[in-house]
Structures are given as structure tokens and as C-alpha cells.
Amino acid sequence: YTCVWLAVTERNITAPLSWLPSQANAASGMAVHDDCKLKFLELKAKRTFRFIVYKIEEQQKQVVVEKLGEPGQSHDDFAASLPADECRYAVFDFDFVTAESCQKSKIFFVAWSPDTARVRSKMIYASSKDRFKRELDGIQVELQATDPTEMDLDVFKSRAN
């Protein structure tokens, strides 16, 4: 890999080596379905969605898109889309107004791991999180939440500024 990396850096390409054959996460063995990245790019570039909820399909050993939130949906809709006793990853496009009255938005990555989730599930999500998050280029803020109060609207507001 050293030779490959040197050849790539000499061409001034700074992208990670995601084009190498294995897309699986070394820690957990989870692959990332192409749809995960494609839908994220739509959220980021075209604002086609307000949020995306991702689920790990343990049988297929991959992360997949579970739910897409329409652009008009709210933070409450987003919070309601996360299961009470199962882990998920999610991305939320948060709109806010700055102290200077400027309209802005930030893309939040939420690692949802409720206390009531299965221990095995929490371990799989925790070991796959960093690799999966790297696939979503453009995340601006990360939240880890174990209960709904850790990702309520006030938390998003305080972390956005």
C-alpha cells in the first residue's frame, strides 16, 4: 500500500483510498451500501431530505438507508423516527439563524444508542461508527445520544453555534 499511496499523493489526490477492493470496516466487518453515500450527497448538495436514518443489517453485514425525511419535516419528526430500543446512525440537516440574523444550516451526525438496546447491537454500532462517518464527507457536528434529551432541539441549537 505504501507504493500505491505515494503514487496517489504525487498526483495531489487527497481522497482516502476508498477505491481499494474491500469496503468492509476492519473492526466490525460492516460494509456501507452505496445508497447510503448517494442519499447523503443528495441531502448535502440538493437538500432533497431533512434527515436520513441508517440501520446496520446484521445478516448482510452492511449499513443501509432505513428512512428518508422529507425537506419539510421537523426535528420532532426526526426524533420520532429513531426507535426507542434499537441503535441507529442518522444525519440531520439543521437550519438555524445566527446571532447576526444570518440563515445557516449544519449537517449533524447522530449516533443513537439507547440504554435499552441490546449490548451486541451497541458494540456493533460503536465499532462501525468512525468508518461509516468517514464515508459521509461533509458532516459538521457529531452527537452521541443514549436518550432523547441528549439530542433535543436545544442541544442542536447550542452545538450549531
From TrEMBL:
The keyword Cytoplasm does not apply. GO terms for biological process: actin filament depolymerization. Residues 27-161 form the ADF-H domain. SMART domains: ADF (SM00102). One of its GO terms (molecular function) is actin binding. One of its GO terms (cellular component) is actin cytoskeleton. PANTHER family: COFILIN-RELATED. This is ADF-H domain-containing protein. It comes from Brassica campestris (Field mustard). The lineage of its organism: Eukaryota, Viridiplantae, Streptophyta, Embryophyta, Tracheophyta.
